[in-house]
Request: fold
Amino acid sequence: MQPVPSRFLIRLARKCLKHPNVPLTKGDALLDLSSEFTLDSLCGLDVQEEFAEMRMCWNAHGLGIQATIKGKKQPPEGDKSRPRSSDGITLWLDTRDSRSSHRATRYCHQFHFLASGAGPDQEDSCFVQSKIHRALQDAPFCNPSEIMFRCINEPGGYFMEAFIPSQSLAGYDPEECPRLGICIQVHDRELGDQIYDSTLDFPFSEDPSLWSQLMLVHPDQDEKPIKKKSGKGSSPKADKTSKKEFES
Reply:
């Protein structure tokens, strides 16, 4: 174990491109995101295996997430009553990017997208929302039927995509708060853990100050960071990039 993960030495801010046409209304696909929507993991900086590729998009109606997991020899395993130990993805989102606090607020969400764990034999994929430990206030629970989610088992892994509508994200307002706090953990009993942007040695699951930033931008936008006002929320006024900030 190294004292501090390499990714903690820089302030990570990833661009999330707008996709006005999702969720798709024709065909089986929900998102069908191209490579330009890929989130660089940088897990190699902390000697983590990279077996998952993550892509994300946004629009006024909500957020989309797409994942491809490769390298498996066994089918995914899970139990929806124990989502953090099941094969799949856990996504933490703070719609107000209040990462100065070590405890979650009502704008901090914990979503689990599981490759298995539901159904009579626990072989069906499922979505689960859970509370964040030690939160100052819990985010409202969404109606699971509002979450569009599908998972397809493929040779050597699985593919999943989901769309989280704005009504399921307390505080979601891309115009007022175009920066989100985010943390992603891809857990697999066979392959291990791929975490954006921390390690298992730190309490990222309950501490929003350990999360990175997700910047909601337009594909043709020359992004300039938003300077936060002191106190609540973010200001829409653009400012210069901090020298310690790294965008990918």
Remarks:
- Residues 223-248 have pLDDT under 50 and may be disordered.
- Residues 203 and 215 are 23 Å apart (CA to CA).
